[in-house]
Design brief:
InterPro entries: DUF192, Saro_0823-like_sf. It comes from Methanosphaera stadtmanae. This is DUF192 domain-containing protein. The chain is mainly β. The chain has a single domain, classed as Sandwich (Jelly Rolls). The longest helix has 6 residues.
Length: 120
Amino acid sequence: MYKLLIYNKNTIQSININYASNYIKRLKGLMLQKKFNGLLYKQKYENRYYSTIHTFFMKVEIDIIYLDKKQQLQEITTLKPNKIHIPQKNNTRYIIELFPKTIKKYKIRQKTKLKIIKIT
């Protein structure tokens, strides 16, 4: 289990996220789920095509956050079911899929500081 820490002004908020640690978990992702914690993908290569996300077989839209190897926010987007998104930049190391409206709820913007930490 991991936590995504969100630093906004004078507050720190956190979201529990699961880790897609193997091929099956990465392949399945959040497909066919209506309720879920966030899901973290660690990319082996920093390439926008390896970081492509699809929402085929998804029941709901998802919020997506792309971070580089220094955990700097690179891109945020919301993806409706049955769509594909290719990030604009070539430096994605972490991808976080979140429940719909999470970006809005936590006021995550392009300059928001984020940090992923492992918890036991």
